[in-house]
Amino acid sequence: MTETAVPMTVRTPTGRASVIDIAGEVTAASEGVLMDAYGRASGERTRWIVLNFSELEYMNSSGIGLLVTLLVRANRQKQRLLAYGLTEHYRQIFQLTRLDEAITIHESESEAIAAAA
Q1: DSSP code string of 60-73
Q2: Number of Cβ within a 10 Å radius of residue 1
Q3: Which CATH code fits 8-116?
């Protein structure tokens, strides 16, 4: 399987929170890129990982599975996942899969960072 080039940048707005900017498609082909971004975002002091979905174009069931894998890794590191930028369609998917119970959804980056503080 060919890995799709999914742009994911990592920012650290605070010493204890990192943001992963997700753009393009999140599918099984994105696994390496997403896990690499998580590795870069997950510092020793990091307690919150904020997922920015505002540039997400498409995510399938394999992409949802990757988010579950990311959630398991974050929980092992005693980190919390937060999200913002989800369209109504993906908010509904988060609700149907109950991901919204484990990954808190916010309206904006500033709201997510404030919740992390």
Answers
A1: -HHHHHHHHHHHHH
A2: 7
A3: 3.30.750.24
Q: Count Cβ neighbours within 10 Å for each residue of 88-100 and write b for 16 or more, e otherwise.
A: eebeebbeeeebb
What are the boundaries of each domain within the chain?
A: 8-116
**In a 3-state reduction of DSSP, which class is residue 25?**
strand
The answer to whether residues 4 and 31 touch, using CB atoms and an 8 Å cutoff, is no
Query: pLDDT tens digits for the chain (117 residues)?
Result: 444 557 799 999 988 999 999 999 999 999 999 999 999 999 889 999 999 999 999 999 999 999 999 999 999 999 999 999 999 999 999 999 999 999 999 999 999 999 987
Q: Are 84 and 105 in contact (CB under 8 A)?
A: yes
